Amino acid sequence: MIRVAVVDDHPLVRVGFTVLIKSCADLEFVGEAGTGQDAVELARSANPDVMLMDVRMPGLNGIEATRMITTDPATATTRVLVLTTFDLDEYAYGALRAGASGFLLKDTAPDELLDAIRVVAGGDSLLAPTTTRRLIAEFVRRVPAETAPPPDLAQLTDRETEVLVAIARGRSNSEIALDLFMSYATAKTHVSRLLTKLDARDRAQLVVIAYETGLIRRGSA
User: Fold this and answer.
1) Span 3-14, average pLDDT
2) Measured CA distances, 63 to 68, 69, 92 (Å)
3) Residue of 18, 89, 111, 172 with fewest CB within 10 Å of its CB?
4) pLDDT for residue 219
5) CB burial string 6-16: b at 16+ within 10 A, e below
6) Does domain 2-123 have CATH number 1.10.10.60?
7) Which is nearest to 156 in space by CA: 166, 171, 147?
């Protein structure tokens, strides 16, 4: 059972998401919040597996709430799925940098949203790679590339670097195995090692690292 919480400053939006979540046998609705501060408190009290997080809210916004949730040991296991109205929203990118596990538009089809919740809860693959990669590629252009690879990347093997590039391009474990001529189990092992070595929460964070360190250059994804 996947425990899900909903955060949005519009009551009608919260109701819609709540009804959708409650319609699924494998999802459990554990609470809702209308502000960022309430979201942080809800994460601490309800301990959801996934929190649907609005970005633009009065007071504490979704970015800061996400950062507080993902950096607090008491709530670090909660994965945040950012939902926004805007296709290329720098606030949403900021939320990914703050530790969010994925990004979706609010007009995403219900079935896609439910699948996204399951994907984020499992942490197995990058959520909505075409949308997420487009958002990251757009706003990472505004972040100066490092003049030299940071120490964290220097510790990677050549193979791990290849896998990181593939992840940043939205490849699944199965696709990585096929592209790099390795078994699925080996691909999964490389991904796990990358998460550990780079101290990343999930694949979305690996994508951010790959772009911000200059490993993936503009237009190369």
Assistant:
1) 96
2) 9, 10, 8
3) 111
4) 46
5) bbbbeeebbee
6) no
7) 166
